């Protein structure tokens, strides 16, 4: 049951309800979901509870209650008021949306009682150090940042649970049984919030890089290779021998990087990969290649799951990362009319030169050791569509 502690969570979507909301509820927080989707907010305010159905091995269903919803588009003042009195603020809105929630969090901090305990702020997005990104947005928009910073503790996190898009209306969420929430310990100076299902770690970098460059790189590769083969359901993709070979090749390349860079043994990383492959294959998860491949421009950007590890491998002389380059090529074929970034990508491939595309989409410059290989990939795709 919800207690006295309050968590304001931006983004009541898949991971918001099916992971962050659930874990904070379990930890005794009363949840305030802030979202811009009218239908979702109305549904949250009309319901007493929703269910999280965990499917796979050891399936079970949990109930989340004790929440309210605020429409942050139409009632920003109420969100600011809630933040002023909250214990925790979390986000799961997507990395590109953090700049829009930053001023609201700043306004909440400004209204906060200076004597109150600091507000814990954690961005739960698939991106390296997303909380730092959020904090920088707050800093950029606030002349009084030093005051606001004194009223908050910003901690980076790595969140891992596959939560597909939900195929029906309503608040219930179907999720996988697996989850991991790693939070950096340092910013709390020994006074971490009580979240029993989270793991506080001294150094988040290995966790977040391993997660992004194994789970998300492998996931995106499965989606893009699967899309090219005409497969719709994510869990079906690895049944295709060509997709499987390519995904395993990609994960072998990121394994080489992660083992070289961090203190993971090759055996431990292989066990992590094997576990992840079984998570992707979970037939009970209604996940699609369209969701997992969504926003291909973000996923092709410089420090993201494809170009990020490929560039680092090239910098280390492990060159060329053949399977990651194949995944980039497959990503360029991701043509989903409902996905604005896919539409933008397909248009750009028809109207821009390969050199412009590589610089603008991947952020690689000609002096980078990966540049020529990526230019070839883009050049082949541009030739194919023109
Ligand atoms: N779904 C997963 O499996 C999963 C797992 C780990 C991390 N993540 C990360 O969590 C984030 C959210 O992913 P998701 O799958 O839940 O997406 P989603 O689209 O289901 O949810 C995002 C929610 O944010 C809301 N939103 C958009 N702009 C907003 C704004 N300005 N203010 C408040 N709310 C806003 C949307 O209305 C939506 O309800 C992403 O960064 C994603 O990478 C997702
Ligand atoms: O959320 P994205 O678009 O960054 O990536 C899509 C999926 O790979 C992702 O949501 C995973 O399901 C999740 O990261 C698993 O923890």
UniProtKB/TrEMBL annotation:
One GO cellular component term: cytosol
GO molecular function: mannitol-1-phosphate 5-dehydrogenase activity
InterPro entries per the UniProt record, alphabetical: 6-PGluconate_DH-like_C_sf (IPR008927), 6PGD_dom2 (IPR013328), Mannitol_1_phos_5_DH (IPR023028), Mannitol_DH (IPR000669), Mannitol_DH_C (IPR013118), Mannitol_DH_N (IPR013131), NAD(P)-bd_dom_sf (IPR036291)
Keyword Oxidoreductase: yes
Residues in the signal sequence: none
Catalytic activity: D-mannitol 1-phosphate + NAD(+) = beta-D-fructose 6-phosphate + NADH + H(+)
Pfam families registered for this protein in UniProt: Mannitol_dh (PF01232), Mannitol_dh_C (PF08125)
Keyword Oxidoreductase: yes
Biological processes per GO annotation: mannitol catabolic process
Residue ranges annotated for the Mannitol dehydrogenase C-terminal domain, each copy included: 203-345
EC number(s) reported in the record: 1.1.1.17
Protein family (similarity comment): Belongs to the mannitol dehydrogenase family.
The name this protein goes by in its record: Mannitol-1-phosphate 5-dehydrogenase
Species of the source: Nakamurella flava
């Amino acid at each position: 049951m919800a207690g006295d502690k309050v968590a304001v969570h931006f983004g009541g979507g898949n991971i918001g309800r099916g992971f962050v909301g659930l874990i904070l509820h379990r930890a005794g927080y009363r949840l305030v979901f802030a979202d811009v989707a009218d239908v979702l907010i109305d549904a949250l305010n009309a319901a007493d509870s929703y269910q999280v159905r965990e499917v796979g091995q050891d399936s079970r269903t949990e109930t989340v209650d004790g929440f309210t919803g605020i429409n942050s588009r139409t009632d920003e003042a109420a969100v600011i008021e809630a933040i002023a009195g909250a214990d925790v603020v979390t986000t799961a809105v997507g990395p590109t949306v953090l700049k829009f929630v930053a001023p609201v969090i700043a306004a909440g901090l400004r209204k906060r009682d200076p004597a109150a305990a600091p507000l814990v702020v954690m961005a739960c997005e698939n991106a390296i150090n997303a909380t730092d990104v959020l904090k920088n947005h707050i800093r950029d928009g606030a002349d009084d940042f030093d005051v606001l910073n004194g009223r908050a503790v910003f901690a980076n996190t790595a969140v891992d649970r596959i939560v597909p898009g939900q195929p029906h209306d309503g608040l219930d969420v179907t999720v996988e049984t697996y989850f991991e929430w790693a939070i950096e310990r340092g910013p709390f100076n020994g006074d971490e919030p009580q979240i029993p299902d989270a793991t506080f770690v001294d150094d988040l970098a290995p966790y977040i890089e391993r997660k992004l460059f194994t789970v998300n790189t492998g996931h995106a590769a499965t989606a893009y290779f699967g899309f090219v083969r005409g497969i719709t359901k994510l869990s079906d993709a690895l049944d295709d021998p060509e997709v499987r070979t390519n995904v395993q090749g990609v994960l072998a390349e990121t394994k080489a990087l992660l083992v070289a860079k961090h203190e993971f043994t090759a055996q431990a990383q292989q066990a992590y990969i094997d576990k992840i492959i079984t998570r992707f294959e979970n037939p009970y998860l209604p996940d699609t290649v369209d969701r997992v491949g969504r926003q291909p421009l973000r996923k092709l950007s410089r420090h993201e799951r494809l170009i990020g590890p490929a560039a680092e491998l090239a910098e280390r002389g492990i060159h060329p990362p053949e399977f990651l380059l194949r995944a980039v090529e497959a990503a360029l074929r991701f043509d989903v009319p409902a996905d604005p970034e896919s539409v933008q990508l397909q248009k750009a491939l028809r109207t821009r030169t390969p050199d412009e595309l590589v610089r603008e989409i991947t952020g690689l410059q000609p002096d980078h050791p990966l540049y020529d290989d990526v230019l070839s990939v883009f050049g082949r795709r541009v030739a194919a569509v023109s």
